[in-house]
Amino acid sequence: MDIPATSGTNTTVDLQTTGLSWPAVAAGAVTAAALSLILVAFGAGLGLSSISPWPGSGVSTTTFKVGSGLYLLVVAVMSSAVGGYLTARLRTRWMGLHTNEVFFRDTAHGLVTWAFATVLSAAVLGSVMSAVAGSAGVAATTAATQPGAADLAVDALFRPDPAAAPLGAGSPPADPARAEILRLWAASLRNNGEFSAADKAYVTRVVAVRTGLNQTAAEQRVNEVVTRTKEVLDQTRKAAAQFSLWLAASLLLGAFAASLAAVEGGQLRDGTWDGRTLTPRAL
Question: What is the DSSP string of 114-131?
Fold first, then answer.
């Protein structure tokens, strides 16, 4: 049973035991998180159906990135609005409070619901959130220095010249020089993206021996592979930064949508709308 509060002309005494209805918050947050997962799965299906490995088919990379970001905003607004509205409609009615206090509590309920739903979604989508937790540059460098990416770069360095007979022909697959260059490559990318002068000269000599290229051609190949790797690093960094910005914008819009929807749902819960009393429809 709700206990009415006593109010005077300028003061309202709240006799409620609590200003936050946790059961309603939990219900709205779980609903928002579940709706987010459904919409994300639906968006993933749309995204996969819109791209194609064939030239001239599917949407462009820029269109796909922008479309994914806009869809992320739509998902955040829709799920947060539903969760906030549901929370306000399920909360306990506060008796005797000033309308300003009711407005604040409904807004707080929507914000807490959004925060709870965000934590739940982060727990479910832990791999995605952990990728965004680091800085964009660190994430890009980590992705580019994975063993597979470094192996591809070293493969490009050791690709033999078809017009020359490599001096290192017949070397065993487990080439100690290759393993050493692989480690040097990963270390250089984690540092500043450049080999030291001594390491670069050593890598150039090894490439010349293993591929049959002359010293000038081997040095040019090393420079080209380093440049291509830096381009991949830069593209990965930009993609991570853009995704982080879209995610931050979606979270902010989600918080606003949840708070606004909670205010509207709370007014309907109390039977008022824009200061007018709502009369229930006769059944």
Answer: HHHHHHHHHHHTHHHHHH
Q: Which class for 60: exposed (0-12), middle (13-18), buried (19 or more C-beta within 10 A)?
A: exposed
Beta strands in the chain (DSSP E): 272-273, 276-277
CB neighbourhood size of 152 (10 A): 15
Are the C-beta atoms of residues 129 and 39 closer than 8 Å to each other?
Answer: no
Encode pLDDT of 144-194 as tens digits. 444 456 777 777 887 776 665 544 444 444 567 777 888 887 777 666 667
Q: In angstroms, how far is the first alpha carbon of the chain from the final one?
A: 25
| Entry pTM | 0.73
pLDDT in tens, 83-110: 999 999 999 888 888 888 889 999 999 9
